[in-house]
Amino acid sequence: MPTQLHSSFTLSALDYAGLDARDELLHPSGQTRPHWQRFYEDPRGLNRNLAASRNARLKRGLLENALTYAITDPANRQSARPLSVDPVPLLLNEEDWSSLKKGARQRAKLTNAVLGDLYGPQTLLKKGLLPPALVLGNPDFLRPMHGIEPAGGVYLQSFAMDVTRGPDGKWWVLRDHSQATAATGFALENRILLGQLYPEMLRALNVRRLAPFFQTQQNHLAALSGKDEPRVLCYTSGPRDPRYLAQAYMARYLGYTMAEGPDLTMRNGKVYFKTLDGLKQVDVILRQVDSHLCDPLELETSSMVGVPGLVTALRSGGVAVANAVGSGLAETGALAGYMPALSQALLDEPLALPNMATWWCGEPGAAAYVQDHFDELNIGPAFDGDSEIERAVLQASPAQRKDLLTHSGHRIIAQERMALPTTPVQVRDQLVPAPYIMRIFVTASGDDYQVMPGGLVLSGQPGRTASTADFSPTMTKDCWVLAKEHEESITLLPRDDGAVKIRRTGKDLASRAADNLFWLGRYVERTEVSCRLMRSVISALTQEGQVAADPASLAAATLPLMRRAGLNSGKNKKPVGAFPDKLRRILSDKTLSYGLFNCVVSIQGTAGRVRDRLSVSTFRTLQKLRDQQQALLPLSSEDVDLNNALPALDDMIMTLNAFAGQSLENMTRNSGWAFLDMGRRLERGLHMVESLQQLLVTMGKVRDGRLVLLLDLADSFMTYRARYMTNPMVAPVLDLLLLDETNPRSIAFQLSQIDHHLQQLDGPAAPSPALSPERHMIYSLVSELRLAHVEVLSNANEKGMRVELSKMLRRFETSLLEFSPLLARSYFSHAEMMTGPASKPEPALRLDA
Amino acid sequence: MTSAQAVETSKRYSVRHLTRYRYSQNVSLSQHFLHLLPRATATQRVETAALNVEPAPATRRDTVDYFGNPTCLISLDEEHIETVLLAQSQISLQRAAPPDPADTAAWEKVRKRVHEGRSKDLLFVHQYCFQSPQTKAGLAAFTLGQQFFEPGMPILEGSMALMDHIFSTYKYDPEATDVSTPVDEVIRIKGGVCQDFAHLQLACLRAIGLPARYVSGYLLTHPPEGQERLQGADASHAWLSIWTGEHGWVDLDPTNNLIPGDEHITLAWGRDYGDVSPINGVTFGGGAHSIDVEVDVIPL
User: Which residue in chain B is spatially nearest to A126 when comparing CA positions?
Assistant: First the structure.
């Protein structure tokens, strides 16, 4: 029994005893297979002493990436990476690899040819090489796509297949992926992570590199457009798609902007990306959205992730989409049995890689076999997503099953069960065999195909055996193809040959992204304002502190928030006794749309939608907010002292300040930054207008406490003290909070910043001499402040009303509330969401006879 | 013998189909995919046909879809608050006497012929043997279909018996269903409108492997005795067609329990309503909207 084959690592004797499936590491004789030897013995390879640190580093690396690419919101858990990575790669030698590579390349070619025939002349059906039901009864045969020639004549730009191995090492195909293959993103991520674990081994073992594969893919996609600098986008259905993380990883590596359906529009037979600078024509779309959802006009009408008119654009040749819309047709397992004959007919060569034995019950003979051997086979739907038939078959009595196989046989396939091979995974400091399957990726290259040397290994429960019937992956692994000779390294990083155009601006900013950044700015500021307000009020209520305002002032200061939160119906006539309860609700009530809980939810949501515009640390900072807000939830109970809210509020304010600092320091001053900052400035300006209205307008003889509260809310108490060594007085406070353009909390400061951003967005040479409506508005407000006299504004009449101040603030409030819609009309109108399908007239007629 | 052989009469009609969308706020963009212009058939000649859209679309593409129906894609790129689609056509219909139901081929023979056929025409018929998105149904449709097709049953006779069953068992009830009610639900509530009855019968026929297609169109209505025709009071209609082998396609109207003659005007056909829906549209902006439809079928 081999327990300590090599000094570097322990094999788990128990698990390796009595394996009857093929194992990748151990030969049946108990010897390590030769191509594993070096990796196994080299101290830079599978060194036992480094097992724990490898795990820790992988975990950290994965977390970084998940935070970089996914929204780790609990409500969106599916967008986190589903499977972690094992630090032990699967090693394949050149003989292993060459048959796989040959088979994958041939299979991609063949699948492309099949698609070309079925979406074209359909000779395969006419000659009887494929049964009609397999195509005509397949929901993935998209009739509107029939007869539309794809760009370059290629239907399949990327392809993947899942394979397994028999005890003799022979490869078998389990299933094909012809829709989209974003999982290349995970293969890439695994390689990058393992490259960090074994930086020298990759080179020492001549591990074939993945970069050339992606370079081929890039070149191929670019060539589809026939342009020198084509605009290539990665079209996804958004963060709710479980594949989003892989898509984001792949898109970033390939250098493609991610676009969702609402970011794209069809005009006059072409597809455009909606950016802040207007509509930009899209040349190539790397499609990650399932075909039938791509166009709500001609395909599935209920799709909310589609691009209306995309099929029309394809028909006009106005855009290239890869893979061709409709390519999912070739994913059906029903094709398996026909592949050998198809290969002969279409490629004139024998099929290189066999399929697992598969019975498609659309053939009466196969249906009869399946009926007799039902319990020995893997039964499933023939067509992707047909869960109804799967359920029906599994629930049917034997008699009903026979009916089902008769009238819906074409929707059912059965596959033989086969024991899966095993490969070692690291469990603590031992190697334990785990069952696995592997996904192989192929990209088109001109009219040929290239196979990624490696792939994504999916491994199951370590120490268990599994068959194709009960396999469920728990982990992914990298796959190293060991070349006999060393190859030159290629990277996708641009080479320094001077050909790159220097750019100071980012790539196109989608209107939707600008819209989201604007709202992110607003939500962040709104949250901060509410936190400050709560902190000041609670301190004043419960403690002897700097702010010793009277209850009426506190109520007045919180009135606008309470109103918005629906906690106050107009006049505040309730006794102050109810006041603390309202504060508790703002702090902890999950149902209040203006409560702190939902403020944080809004921040997380909008931040997630512009995830690719924020740095990792900025995004993480925002993640902290949620935990900090959780600490406020116990405040809903009256048994918890209100004071207990203060530490959490402090934390939240600190976090929000950190976010402000990070975005100030880290974001380039492009239009994205402008929208984030304008959102923040607008919200802060509005809040200051409200505070002045509440606390300064109606009171003639302002009590000190009220002015101190105002300064505290504006975080300007220290500034005031530094300038005026006196207790607060109306005119200087008003100057500081309203007119002073150097105080980052004043209304004047907010407006002049917005004005500056608008000026930048207009560009140096505005096309029209007239100011845009939003700029005109802000400019006139800024001018009004510059011309204002603080003494006039401070004057109260005999009833204690500051009439001039009141008039001015009301004007400002009205204007600022109109700013958002004005901005939207100028910049986000393309971002307008589809309001849905138009009502359909229902045919309804019956003769009254 | 073909279905168009026994020509008795020919009738002419003018068809006017007006659809008006009104929005509560401006729409910045609306795009529609239309099946509003009639196709020619073995018995139907389209003398004139025109589609007029207000406001004028920035893009308009007229094509023919996979099933041979005329379609039109329009894109209205300028702000608008109303869209009016007016389709007008003149049609002449020849009345073809339907085959004697008892004289049609046994249903199993028809099925075998279609399932084994490999010619372009038979492949095209074959596609109508399968479930489509709106004719999906469970075992109930299969059971129902089987009842009317004993071994050797002539296909048209069985189909008409099934049609009669639907007509007499299912209640015409415009409130019971909407455009997306699934067949299983129609079977459960035993009610619906023409579209539901067509989908139901299609589901039953297809469950036993027979080729049948959905037909969308119009029906001439007769005002009550002594009253004037009301303008715009007609409506779209839907029925189905079964392929009977040597007698070709024969239309069946389960809503009225009859074989359509020279008062059913065909607009388009496909696997189900989804393939030929008169208007598939999306709008951006616009707030709430209302839709008005006026249809007039006037004998000439």
Answer: B118
